[in-house]
Amino acid sequence: MSDIEVPKGLTNVIVDETGIATTDSTGNLLYRGYKVVDLVRKLGFEDVAYLIVYGKVPTEQERNSFFARIKENSMIDGSVEDVMRILKEKDVMRNIRSIVSLYPYTSEKSDDLLVEIAAKIPKIVSDSYRIAHNLPLVDDADGSFAERFYYLITGNRDPEKSKYLERLMIMYMEHEFNASTFALRVTASTLADPVAAVTSALATLKGPLHGGASAEILDFFLGFKSGEDAVKYIDDKIEKKEKIMGFGHRIYKDMDPRAQYIKEQLRQMAGDSSLFRIAVAIEERMWEKKKIPANLDFYAAIYMHLLGIDQDFYTPIFAASRVFGWIAHYNEQLQNNKIIRPSSKYVGPTGLSL
Ligand code: COA
Predict the structure, then answer these.
(1) Residues of the chain with pLDDT > 90: what percent?
(2) In the predicted model, is pLDDT for residue 141 greater than 90?
(3) Rounded-to-integer distance, Cα 228 and Cα 102, Å
(4) What mean pLDDT, rounded, does the chain reach?
(5) Of 125, 144, 218, 278, which residue is most buried, by most CB within 10 angstroms?
(6) Average pLDDT over residues 14-35
(7) How far is Cα 90 from Cα 241, in angstroms, rounded to an integer?
(8) Cβ(293) – ligand 1 distance below 6 Å
(9) What percent of the chain is helix, strand and coil (3-state, nearest 5)?
(10) Any idea which residues carry the catalytic annotation?
């Protein structure tokens, strides 16, 4: 059989089927067939997570028992906090990746184990950060997933800001064969266990071309005093052929629907402030000069900043959301598994002898 050559980066290559998420012909992101912008208006994080994992909108009872499973599994074993005290690692993504991989889980069934991993991520994020910065540990057993997570990362209880965080987390929850999900599916396809697969996904999400982008945006954004300042910076980067974090996407070439939703939420929060105007000036300049749209991470970074969330948590928030998509993909991969093992075109030397 002759080999099939595909474009670099697998651009536009369909590698398998999925029933979890897609982008429709009009540019809407769909989770299990529903437009995400409709889901976020009507459902909470727990409902959408259930929908993604189990393929149906939960009844109230299903939702409550799913959330109860998450709550039961949300605490961290003291021995693992001791490990965090030894590591004192400030990079929260490194902590999530390491702790998820070494955690002494108690679940035996694959589905329970995946939910156990997802349930622990918010507390891993909070405890590891607080330990590394010599801050007291906090927790809040009450409230929704987003309310607890907001409290864990900011130390403040704020139902309104938690609701804004929840909307962003729903946007981040799933995105078909993105790089981290693909890494998870490759690992799952070898029949490695759920912990190994989620660890692969976390390691892949960290890179600045993927989930790490949001953590780099404020580094340049907060330095601008005006839209003109920002435009000069953008022009200079374009001139030097450097990438601007928060722009471009493999799937969305005209518009990222998630970015536009979060932009509107940001407008609600920030009003016609200079911060909002600078963001729009950057978006417009990138489109005018390069025809490259803002992606979700661009508006998400500014949005999380306004919610009073430290930049160290931006990629971890993505991870705590996307893990529910990863659960669905782990299960889907194993329902009809074939090991993912492509070929390569050898371009190295041959016939060498010693
Ligand atoms: N800033 C400046 N130019 C960009 C750009 C950006 N953020 N993103 C893409 N481009 C340019 C590329 O330089 C390339 O130009 P060329 O054809 O002249 O070489 C062209 O647009 C196509 O980009 P490419 O990197 O090949 O697209 P891709 O589909 O392989 O990559 C991303 C997609 C997301 C990795 C890429 O857009 C990127 O690196 N963005 C910045 C990181 C980011 O925000 N990541 C979060 C994604 S949600």
Answers:
(1) 96
(2) no
(3) 49
(4) 96
(5) 125
(6) 96
(7) 32
(8) no
(9) 60, 5, 35
(10) 210, 249, 297
Q: What is the identity of the amino acid at 273? A: S
331, amino acid identity: N
Q: What is the pLDDT of residue 272?
A: 84
> Which stretch of DSSP H or E encloses residue 278?
helix 274-290
Dist. CA 74–CA 203, nearest whole Å:
22
Take atom 44 of ligand 1 and give the residue whose Cα is closest: 246
Distance 196 CA to ligand 1 centre (A): 29
Q: Which of 321, 306, 292, 129 is nearest to 221 (CA)?
A: 306
Q: Which amino acid is at 85?
A: R
Ligand 1 binding pocket includes 209 (Cβ within 6 Å): yes
**Spatial separation of the C-alpha atoms in residues 174 and 49, rounded to whole Å:** 9
289 lines ligand 1 (CB under 6 A): no
pLDDT band at 1 (very low <50, low <70, confident <90, very high): low
User: How far is the C-alpha of 196 from the C-alpha of 204, rounded, in Å?
Assistant: 13
What's the burial of 301, exposed, middle or buried (CB within 10 Å: 0-12/13-18/19+)? buried
Residue-wise pLDDT tens digits, 257-271: 999 999 999 999 988
Q: What is the DSSP letter of 312?
A: G
- In degrees rounded to 5, what are phi and psi of residue 69? -60, -40
Which of 197, 135, 138 is closest to 333 using CA atoms?
Answer: 197
Nearest-atom number in ligand 1 for the CA of 178 is 48
* Ligand 1 site, residue 322, Cβ cutoff 6 A: no
